[in-house]
Design goal:
The complex is a heterodimer of chains A (about 110) and B (about 120).
Chain A lengths: L8 E5 L4 E6 L7 E8 L5 E7 L4 E2 L4 E4 L5 E6 L8 E9 L11 E6 L1
Parallel strand pairs in A: 1-9
Antiparallel strand pairs in A: 2-7, 3-4, 3-8, 5-6, 6-7, 8-9
Chain B lengths: L4 E3 L2 E4 L5 E6 L6 E8 L5 E7 L2 E4 L8 E4 L6 E5 L8 E8 L11 E2 L3 E5 L1
Parallel strand pairs in B: 2-11
Antiparallel strand pairs in B: 1-3, 3-8, 4-5, 4-9, 5-6, 7-8, 9-10, 9-11
The chains are: A mainly beta (about 110), B mainly beta (about 120).
Chain lengths: ~110, ~120
């Protein structure tokens, strides 16, 4: 299974953009890149996913490198409610298992 | 729409006892998954149901764990007998379609925190 590498923690100021990086150098051509976040005392929550092209939704944007060996989750304006552990996960096409890594703990400063 | 519901939210049991965790998926979701995070480790896949059938139980740690999904609705995960290393948070998730057609993610429940003493 392809692995992801993320920084253990990051800090951001409220109302500023946040760029959360993820390296996945062993990604295969059919692996989807998913991002989930886990708020305190909650289960993981879907944020966004993509395959090759950059993606936007109401929660965030996902920028995928041209070689797909890395990606960046972009929160356009961080709020205190965005403080969570963010997981970058690869899911092989046709499978249903998520292989979670250790994630990045995001702290948002008021 | 109600989310994925898990109960109990917390359970403390003694080593050797039996515990049953329950998960109610979102209505109409045929796919149900169990994951867990034991202390200091990453969240790991346990198994996947499609309706009442087990599609993949490759993540189940040993035969002390038994998952069922009678009638394809709610699911239970029984640990018998519980050991200290089973302590952790057990998450259930559901999705409407099989993942290769996913254009969104799973919906996870808030988890059951199991403590074996």
């Amino acid at each position: 299974d392809a692995k992801t590498t993320q920084p253990n923690s990051m800090e951001s100021n409220e109302e500023e953009p946040v760029h959360l990086p993820c390296n996945h150098s062993t990604i295969s051509g059919t692996d989807y890149i998913h991002w989930y976040r886990q708020l305190p005392s909650q289960g993981p929550e879907y944020v966004i996913h993509g395959l090759t092209s950059n993606v936007n939704n109401r929660m965030a944007s996902l920028a995928i490198a041209e070689d797909r060996k890395s990606s960046t989750l972009i929160l356009h304006r961080a709020t205190l409610r965005d403080a969570a552990v963010y997981y970058c996960i690869l899911r092989a096409s046709g499978t249903y298992k998520y292989i979670f890594g250790t994630g990045t703990r995001l702290k948002v400063l008021a | 729409e109600a989310g994925v519901t898990q109960f109990p939210s917390h359970s403390v049991i003694e080593k050797g006892q039996t515990v049953t965790l329950r998960c109610d998926p979102i209505s109409g979701h045929d796919n149900l998954y169990w994951y867990r995070r034991v202390m200091g480790k990453e969240i790991k896949f346990l198994l996947h149901f499609v309706k009442e059938s087990k599609q993949d139980e490759s993540g189940m740690p040993n035969n002390r764990f038994l998952a069922e999904r009678t009638g394809g609705t709610y699911s239970t995960l029984k640990v018998q007998p519980a050991e200290l290393e089973d302590s952790g948070v057990y998450f259930c998730a559901s999705s409407q379609v099989v993942p290769r057609h996913l254009n969104y993610g799973y919906t996870f429940g808030s988890g059951t925190r199991l403590t074996v003493v």
